[in-house]
Amino acid sequence: MAKEELLEFDGTVTEVLPDGNFRVKLDNDHEILAYTAGKMRKFRIRTGVGDRVVVEMSPYDLQRGRISFRHKSAAPPMIGSGQRRPQYRR
After folding, report:
1. Is it true that domain 3-70 has CATH number 2.40.50.140?
2. Is-contact 34 55, C-beta < 8 A?
3. What is the pLDDT along the chain (90 residues), one digit of tens a residue?
4. What is the Cα–Cα distance from 72 to 87, expressed in whole angstroms?
5. Where are the domains of the chain?
6. Which of 6, 17, 56, 65 could form a disulfide with 21 if both were Cys (CB 3.0 to 4.6 A apart)?
7. What whole-number distance in Å separates Cα of residue 43 and Cα of residue 59?
8. What predicted TM-score, i.e. pTM, was given to this entire model?
9. Are strands 31-36 and 21-26 parallel, antiparallel or unpaired?
10. 3-state SS string over 9-70?
11. Distance (Å, whole) CA 22 – CA 17
12. Which of 2, 7, 18, 12 has its CA nearest to residue 61?
């Protein structure tokens, strides 16, 4: 099957499962099981509950999909991320 035949849907991650899968609720109110695409895994793009994602699905199996894109959230970055604490000696 060619990649051009994949269906793309927008959705929201509702649950992170322990084996690297995600439960995603699509905008048309369907719930599917999805996994992260290889490029997202390669570049360590983290996906959590509440993230907006784009899911690619095969027309043959509409219960499973692949997360191909995670939208950047509008929330500000967490305080303290990427900052170093000053080292004080006693």
Report:
1. yes
2. yes
3. 566 789 999 999 999 999 899 999 999 999 999 999 989 899 999 999 999 999 999 999 999 999 999 998 765 555 555 566 677 776
4. 33
5. 3-70
6. 17
7. 28
8. 0.75
9. antiparallel
10. EEEEEEEECCCCEEEEEECCCCEEEEEECHHHHHCCCCCCCCCEEEEEEECCEEEEEEEEEE
11. 6
12. 7
Distance CA 51, CA 39 (A): 18
In the block, residue with structure tokens 């000696």: 89
Q: Tokens at residue 42, please?
A: 């390669």
Distance, CA of 60 to CA of 30 (rounded, Å): 16
Residue type present at position 13: V
Spatial CA neighbour of 71 closest among 42, 44, 50: 50
Mark 2-11 as b/e (b = at least 16 C-beta within 10 Å).
Answer: eeeeeeebeb
